[in-house]
Amino acid sequence: MDKTIPLLQHDFGKDALISPRKDAATLPPCCVLCFCQDAIDAMNERGELEPLAKFSTEMGLHQVHLIKGRSEPVALLNPGIGGPLSALLLERAIVCGA
């Protein structure tokens, strides 16, 4: 009896026909998801953030910021309220390199 699992036989060396990474913005590998927009607005008013990317959804644009003054680049994103929207924005951040 063959005990191989077909899911483990994927060739990761080949690009898929549809690849989400081809046209995606580039984010740093570290990304903070902050549900408190007031905290993000306060950091922005103090000049601690700079725009990095925008994710578009049916609800509008969701700004991704870069936190200034860090030794390593860190992105900041408000994932919205609710599981589906948060999951969507998290997946987009992952696709972009976070």
Q: How does this model look, in words?
A:
This protein is α+β, with helices and mostly antiparallel strands and 98 residues long. It is 22% helix and 26% strand. The chain contains two helices and four strands. The protein has a four-stranded mixed β-sheet with strand order 1-4-3-2. Strand 2 and strand 3 form a beta hairpin. The mean pLDDT is 85.
What's the topology here?
Blueprint: E1 30-33, H1 37-45, E2 49-57, E3 60-67, E4 74-77, H2 83-95
Structural class: alpha+beta
Describe the global form.
elongated
Mean pLDDT: 85
- Helix and strand pattern: EHEEEH
Low-pLDDT segments, ≥5 res: none
Approximately how much helix is present in the residues? Answer: 10-25%
The whole-angstrom Rg is: 17 Å
Number of helices: 2
Proportion of residues in extended strands: 25-35%
N/C terminus separation: 41 Å
Strand order within the widest beta sheet: 1-4-3-2
What's the number of extended β-strand segments? 4
Largest sheet: 4 strands, mixed
Features:
about 100 residues; alpha+beta; four-stranded mixed beta sheet
Task: Briefly summarize what is shown.
With 98 residues, the chain is of the alpha+beta class. The chain has helices at residues 37-45, 83-95; strands at residues 30-33, 49-57, 60-67, 74-77.
